[in-house]
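Morning F.,

Quick status update on the modeling queue. The single chain you submitted on Monday has been processed. Sequence for confirmation:
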Amino acid sequence: MKLNNRVALITGSSRGIGQATALAFAREGADLIVNYRSQSERAEETVNQIKQMGRKAIAIKADMADGDAVDKMVETAIGEFGKIDILMNNAGAIRRAEFLEISPEDWSIQIRTNLDGTFRCTQAVAKYMADRKYGKIINIASMMGLGVNIPRIAGYSVSKGAIITFTKAVALELGKYGINVNCIAPGVILTEFTHEGRTEKEVQELVEKQKRTSIMGAIGKPEDIANTAVFLASDESAFITGQVIVVDGGYISFMSHSA
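Structure tokens below.
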């Protein structure tokens, strides 16, 4: 198995992409720290599914916008497993609003959760990885961090664009410790997150647009991101770092299209 006896921490892994990746990692032999912010029942369900595969797993509550909670989560994980081989910064927040109407509070929560949370968690985990001269860090950005043609997501896009630059900067500094740092930029992936702040009509319009303007003519599934993450978390990607892998069915090739 590609991740046999590795220990992975995935933030925001009680649902969606994070949950799909946690289950994919477990199938490849990893033990998991399942992080959640509010959905304890979903987190425990994920833990139970992992245990049914014969792997170890625990759920830890921590809001990525709370730096102290992030540090405590990492300390708890190290105390339980003794190491963290793989970190996937997946937890995210989005507040959809016209730019002239978005509140400073909604802007701030996206930056604090998406960018600051990635920074705080990466720094806390990387210290342990550096001591062991091994680590795999995977940051989840977005194709909207590379170019924007969907309105009402300025704060989200800015935070995801910053994660891409963060990935490259941190990869440069952590390479000497044997730590690979890479980034996945998903396209439109149909999850509960896709529905947040949108009406069902808006979701269906987004799905149809993705099908029309992506090379593959389809919308993405959480497993599409999970499969990419397995590769980046494995030793098969040992010579890859500081990279952004876009997983969007070819949608980004049509960025010049109007929203």
